[in-house]
Amino acid sequence: MTSPVPSYRISVAPMMDWTDRHFRFFIRLISKHALLYTEMVTTGAILRGKDNHRYLDFSKEEHPIALQLGGDSPEALAECAKIGEDYGYDEINLNVGCPSDRVQSGSFGACLMKEPELVAEMVAACKSKVKVPVTVKHRIGVNGKESYEDLFHFVSKIKEAGVDHIIVHARIAILEGLSPKENRTIPPLRYADVYKLKNDFPGLPMTINGGIKTHTEIKEHLAKVDGVMIGRAAYDNPFLFHEVDQFYFGSMENPPSREEVLIELISYIRLALKKEGKVHHILRHILGLFHGEKGAREYRKFLTDRMHLTGANESILRDYLKR
């Protein structure tokens, strides 16, 4: 049953090397309603690649799911947006927030915040090709363009272009001298700027992102914006999503236990290994399941000691549950 609450109410951030299809399926076992995002996929990977299934395939259980695209060509992004829609994605998201050197070398990601008119063209081009929502994930600014006035101008341009929803990481990106990891922690959080932005654009759905780790924080933000996106905390402490459906989407279903999640994952792993990959490609994503609980260290050690062994498979989880 579809929740009457918009799926962007609570979402899991796109994270390179982390939010692959295995992690997304794992999170979906914990929350049925939170919106999931793919890792960023570049337009070049889609348009020049010979195997789009590698980048774009997902399980039907992952809905609602958004495809995040990286690029700076309105035409290429529009073509990829259409491909994504045809694959069945529920949303097309444009990356205007990633500060990595790899992204900057391609002139997209956070550096596009210096070019609001181009981002507006990108939004408009995608909107002309697809019927699903077109959204933008961006920072509150970049060094040299970090005032609230710069942020307001940027959002006004993409709003005029028809953006359906924005996700705002409440830090600026420093494009020279900081690593992506440092850009997630060193620039100070400026939640007040996002709140002001929502007041200035009341009709534009807006999600806040950056440094949010607890339900107390989530509820405080939801009093002022439309949605909350969780990044690293979703990976480090995935059971944070245990009661998301009940707290924020009005679900009356009983949330699963950690053991029930592992039981469900056994069948997924068995089927996944018949297609390709190694079991550690999946199990690496679930090491945080018992975060903060007694026995968490033993759980992690049990998995890590076994998941790289030759022939390792889903029986690791069966053996753990039999302990």
From TrEMBL:
UniProt key word Nucleotide-binding: yes
Record-annotated DUS-like FMN-binding domain positions: 12-315
Family, similarity comment: Belongs to the dus family.
Any one GO MF annotation of this record: tRNA-dihydrouridine20 synthase activity
Site positions per UniProt: Interacts with tRNA: 95, 181, 184, 297, 300
Residues annotated as binding FMN: 14-16, 68, 137, 169, 209-211, 231-232
Annotated catalysed reactions: 5,6-dihydrouridine(20) in tRNA + NAD(+) = uridine(20) in tRNA + NADH + H(+); 5,6-dihydrouridine(20a) in tRNA + NAD(+) = uridine(20a) in tRNA + NADH + H(+); 5,6-dihydrouridine(20a) in tRNA + NADP(+) = uridine(20a) in tRNA + NADPH + H(+); 5,6-dihydrouridine(20) in tRNA + NADP(+) = uridine(20) in tRNA + NADPH + H(+)
Cofactor(s), by name: FMN
Keywords: Flavoprotein, FMN, NADP, Nucleotide-binding, Oxidoreductase, RNA-binding, tRNA processing, tRNA-binding
Designated name of the protein: tRNA-dihydrouridine(20/20a) synthase
Native organism: Leptospira noumeaensis
